[in-house]
Amino acid sequence: MNAKPFALRNLLVLLRKWMTEMSDAGRRMTAGNGQLIHPGSADWHDAQKYFQGILEERLLQQSLVEHSAIKDAPYDHIDASLQQMCDEWCGQIKKETAFYNRNNILRTTAYRKVYEESPELHWALLAHLVSRNGGYNMTDLRGQVGNMTLANQEQDTLFGFLEQCNYLIFQDAYPQLRLYQLGKRYGSAWLPLLRSFHASIFMQAAWNMFMEFGHSPMLTIAQIINEQSYIEKRVIQDPDMQQQVFSAPLFSMQELFHLTSVVFPALDHDGEINTYFGIFMDDFLSLKQRIRAGKVLYNILFQGSAYEPKLELLQFAQKVKHTGSRADYVPALFSKRSDDRARFFSPELQTVWPNQSHPSIVATDWCTKVDVMRELSMMHILPQKAGDITSAYLRKLEEIRTLAQFLPFS
What we know:
- The chain is mostly helical.
- It has one domain (3-319, 352-404).
- Helix content is 57%, strand content 6%.
- The chain is built from 15 helices and six strands.
- The protein has helices at residues 3-30, 42-64, 67-71, 80-100, 104-117, 122-142, 144-149, 152-183, 201-213, 216-236, 239-244, 287-302, 310-319, 349-352, 390-404; strands at residues 36-37, 261-267, 273-280, 334-335, 344-345, 378-379.
- A hairpin with a 5-residue loop joins strand 2 and strand 3.
- Mean pLDDT is 81; it is low at 22-38 and 67-75.
């Protein structure tokens, strides 16, 4: 009997069991103390009321004026003395966006730089850590298991899906982050510039709220909603993507390639990675589930109770260079060397995927109804060490390592 397909089937069964356990753990984590709620605090209520008022006003404007007229409107409400400076900002941001949006490695670096300069922008740190996972997913396709199970065309198709999501979110979010950084010294004068970068009216209202209330959690939840909604019609509901990527059996390989998982390694004071936080989603194709997952991850990162992993996760982000290889955080199981027979081959991203060119983005606004405000909710404080998946994660990695010894990798 040929040992290779038999061992591969065992590996797939093992990984499916792992995913089931992690999904069950995620459901337990978000039950009870993890229920989605609308916080009752006065500051949240006031900020949300202000946010909704701005959004309703913008939606009314959108119904009265053609979008093309709005997006090309002059920088109304900006003092003439700031006009030239605003033009310079826009030129600088467009150059930066084009530079960093060439690949996952650069995007991930850019998010970290934004957070280090402006720690009030919580979403930037969350985006950095999630973007690292995007890079791992990309290299998995060209790694040992990917080469064993997928043809080159299938690898290219799944990479194209991951890259498009990665690219679109950065193209939308990064200019907004940089506009805030460049313009915050001038108060709210920079806000009309958001239209120059085709920011959704939902995010225009969110930034108005932030400049008025400085409410970082609400801004972060708004950014989670915005970016997942932004890719919903452009990628998830795209007919070509539906046919090429999400149809069985190709997308069923999502379990093998962790497309529904996000893992945050924590670097302790001794420089060791001994703790892992994260979640495994039940339904990646569901917009509500992706938004919910973003909220859970944000809660793990910033809203933890007695044990808050943010410092250790930030330590990992700052100290461990992002190469896209899973060897960056599980060197006991993954290796960057293809001739390492004891570990899974996990290459650096830029050695296996060249920079991609992308078509021009059509400026359309996903936000058409104020009903989206229903998603603007936080979560209760989670239990101590919420999201800590270390024990189950490492146990399953050891099982995979044991099985790998019997796989005749080539």
